[in-house]
Amino acid sequence: MTDLPGDLKYTLEHEWLTDGAPATVGITSVAAEALGDIVYLELPAVGESIAAGTVIGEIESTKSVSELFSPVTGTVVEVNTAAVDDPSVVNSDPFGAGWLIKVDVAEAGPLLTAEEYAAHAAG
C-alpha cells in the first residue's frame, strides 16, 4: 500500500479530508489504484450543501463507476476544475493536485486516522 499522509483524516469509503478551513476533500491512493484510469468526475457545484455520508458525485474509470461520498456536512466553496478537465490527475497525484472539492465544514462525519484507514484498507 502506498504511504498515507498522517496529517489527513480518512473515511471508510476511501475519501480523505484536511483539517483546514475550508477543508479539502479527495479520494485516497488506495481508491485511485483500485479504480484504474479515471476518465470522468461528476462533482457537486460551488454553493451546494452536502451532508456527511451522502453521495455527492461519481468517479468513472475504465473499469467502473463509483460513488463519491461526503466526509462532512457543509457547503462546497471550490471545485477542482483542473481535475474535472483532466481526471487522470486524481490517479497521478490523489493527495495533491488531484483533490476534488473544498468545503466550509459545519460538522464532520465519522473519520479515521491514517493508521485506522490503513488497517481498514488492508483488511
Automatic annotation (TrEMBL):
UniProt keywords, alphabetically: Lipoyl
Residues modified as N6-lipoyllysine: 63
Gene Ontology cellular component annotations, sorted alphabetically: cytosol; glycine cleavage complex
Cofactor remark from the record: Binds 1 lipoyl cofactor covalently.
Cofactor requirement: (R)-lipoate
GO BP: glycine decarboxylation via glycine cleavage system; protein lipoylation
Ranges in coiled-coil conformation: none
UniProt keyword annotation of Disulfide bond present: no
Pfam families with a match to the protein in the record: GCV_H (PF01597)
Family, similarity comment: Belongs to the GcvH family.
Described purpose of this protein according to its UniProt entry: The glycine cleavage system catalyzes the degradation of glycine. The H protein shuttles the methylamine group of glycine from the P protein to the T protein.
Protein's recorded name: Glycine cleavage system H protein
Species of provenance: Cellulomonas uda
